[in-house]
Design a protein that fits this description.
about 120 residues, mainly beta, seven-stranded mixed β-sheet, globular
Length: about 120
């Protein structure tokens, strides 16, 4: 089994930055595709970013491209989301997720961490 725990959320002013962390259990973390989703109050959960096992291939939602950076440190079993130039619309609960690569789907999810951007 895989457990994911997000941290680093909080309150930040528009234009500011936050770095989210996702600590993963399991020895196979280094082979997993990892991702971040977010869900704003009253909205559907949406894709934010993903990263492959090597960290050399990344995908971003258009809404965050150029502002957010996903990265991973396989030695630490941790994936990060660096969020810069934050906007009010970035306010959401951010979820870490993992794809083991067997079924090609996001099989594992963290509990989420709240990010609130204020004016």
């Amino acid at each position: 089994q895989v457990q994911l725990v997000e941290s680093g959320g909080g309150l930040v002013q528009a234009g500011g930055s936050l770095r989210l962390s996702c600590a993963a259990s399991g020895r196979t973390f280094g082979t997993y595709r990892m991702g971040w989703f977010r869900q704003a109050l009253g909205k559907e959960r949406e894709f934010v970013a993903s990263i492959n096992w090597s960290g050399r291939s990344t995908i971003y939602a258009d809404s965050v491209k150029g502002r957010f950076t996903i990265s991973r440190d396989n030695a630490k079993n941790t994936v990060y989301l660096q969020m810069n130039s934050l906007k009010l619309e970035d306010t959401a609960v951010y979820y870490c997720t993992a794809d083991p690569g067997v079924a090609g789907r996001w099989d594992y999810w963290g509990q989420g961490t709240q990010v609130t951007v204020s004016s």
